[in-house]
Each structure stands twice: as structure tokens, then as C-alpha cells.
Amino acid sequence: MGPIKTIYLVDDDQDDRFFIKEAIQGADISLQIVEVENGLDLLDLIQKQEAPIASLILLDMNMPKMNGLETVSAIRSYPALSAIPVIMISTSSNATLIATAYKAGVSGFLTKPSTFEEFNLLAREIVVNFLD
Known about the structure:
Blueprint lengths: L5 E5 L3 H14 L4 E5 L2 H9 L8 E5 L7 H10 L8 E5 L4 H10 L3 E4 L4 H16 L1
């Protein structure tokens, strides 16, 4: 077994963080999940030497201080962070927004689920496609 993989879960909605975290841990118990409330806090955290290296960043689109697009652009501007997969999660499935997110550098775009069953499916998709 390799090193423990760390997911940074960036979302200002505490309930959404809870459901995503529960679902991901249900899909793969060995994953370490670090919860962060906004993009600015994420950038502060991942630039600190003692923070675990991210295997994946799950990023909400709509957040205060720094939205998902601004955050992914900032992540992609740091050479040490540029290879980390970033998945944008949004309640919107607007095609223009999705295209803009990919242009900014996301590795994937997922629509935020509304039921716990959908959160579980989302988590399995994330683990299979981005962490295996």
C-alpha cells in the first residue's frame, strides 16, 4: 500500500462538506480529508511546509473571499501545485461555466448532488477516476 492520499475539500457550506466527506470515506476509508472553507484558506494551507501534499483538490465554485475559478487559477500558477488534479463541484451545470472552469485548469467538473445516494455515487466516481 502506498502513502495515504490526501484530499483537500474546499467548500463554504458545512453540510455539503459533511456529505462529501462521509461519502468519500465510505468509498475509501484510507483517504485523509482536509476540510477548508474557502480558496484563500486553501492557498495559505497548501503553501505551508507542514501541510500534507494534496493528491486531489475538490473545489466548490461559489465561495466567499475567492471563488473556485480564482482559486484554480492561483493553484495552476504555482509550479509545485500545478500537477495536482482539481475537481470543480458546482450546483450549476451551465455549459459556459463548465468551459470556463476547464480553461482555468480544472481536471474535472461535477454537478453537486442533492441526495446522499448521489453523494455516494459522486464519491465513487472521484475515487475511481482520480485516485486509483
